[in-house]
Amino acid sequence: MAAVTSAMIGVHWDISWHQSIGRDTFWTPAHLAIHLCGVLAGVACAYLILSTTARRESSIRTHAVRIWGFWGPLGAFIAAWGGIAMLTSAPFDNWWHNAYGLDVKILSPPHMVLAAGIIWVEVGALILILGYMNRAAESERGLLLAMFLYVGGMILVCLMILELELTIRPLMHRAHFYRVVATAVPLVLAVVARGARYRWAATVVAGVYTLFIALVVWILPLFPAEPKLGPVYHQVTQFTPPEFPLLLIAPAFLLDLVWQRTGHWGAWKQSVVSAMIFLVAFALVQWPFADFLMSPAARNWFFGTKYFGYNTRPDSIYARYLFVRPETAAVFWQETGLAFVIAAIGIRLGIAGGDQLQRIRR
């Protein structure tokens, strides 16, 4: 959990560092926080695997899997591979910047290796906790369940970072924005809720995402920063935070209500209805909230729309609080239809994946 948290703090800090200071060196505190995740995961899981392998009478050995002659919990092996991938990405990312300069996009090749490593660490942590939780007595499940839902929320935070460039404020009145959100959120909510077997799991996961991003929005600007690269289009004196979290908690709450009442339905019927409810509920809250975020009322420390990176051009639609022109009617409905199909498939896969998670004991 410490590794997962360190990675998500470090990634948001690093993005803010790029927007506020620029990339002055690889050895920034933000980069160290990110790669601390790989170190913590690697060391912890290596110890767990090696100690389980060495102690044949270990209680963990009876609930372990054997891979390449080593014994350990399944989640430990997955998280260890994630930690290795993260540390492998570090010199790759440093070379990339030396060769090509600053990041133009978040989704660069070294960042994809890093993101894959982080996700594997998170998934490994989720399965490691779940193995203990599924073996635990009912009286012992409370703390493990809280840890499981927290890591599920961090997975949602991580996936939303990957979609960051396609979910900014100026795009919130386009159907494509909702299709992008539908590619990750319904799947995560469904698989964690099904695996946790807790009636408010989706709401808690969305709540973890909301609180974490909100804290980043409120805390980062408290620290001073000054651009070290040019051109400087906007004078920055403090760290630039990410945008205010999306209102995912509203559709997540409704999904919990629906899933509590439709457990006896077929998986596809439940998925189709859930996808429709997710998209409608999310659009009903996020569309008008986007209008509010563009208004002067949101230009304060709480909602954070007053902050801009040093390389934000003053004549850009972002700086002028404008929306990107909406799609034509035909494209709008096409994107909406794709969003519905993607959300339905994601929820169906999440239900199937959650059912598999319930069987994990090792």
TrEMBL record:
Report whether Transmembrane shows up as a keyword of the record.
Answer: yes
| Superkingdom to which the source organism belongs | Bacteria
Can you tell me where the transmembrane regions are?
32-50, 70-92, 112-131, 143-164, 176-193, 200-223, 243-259, 271-289, 331-351
Q: Which organism is it from?
A: Candidatus Acidiferrum panamense
How far does the signal peptide extend, from start to end residue? Answer: none
Q: Which keywords describe this protein according to UniProt?
A: Membrane, Transmembrane, Transmembrane helix
UniProt entry tagged with the keyword Cytoplasm: no
Q: What is this protein called?
A: Uncharacterized protein
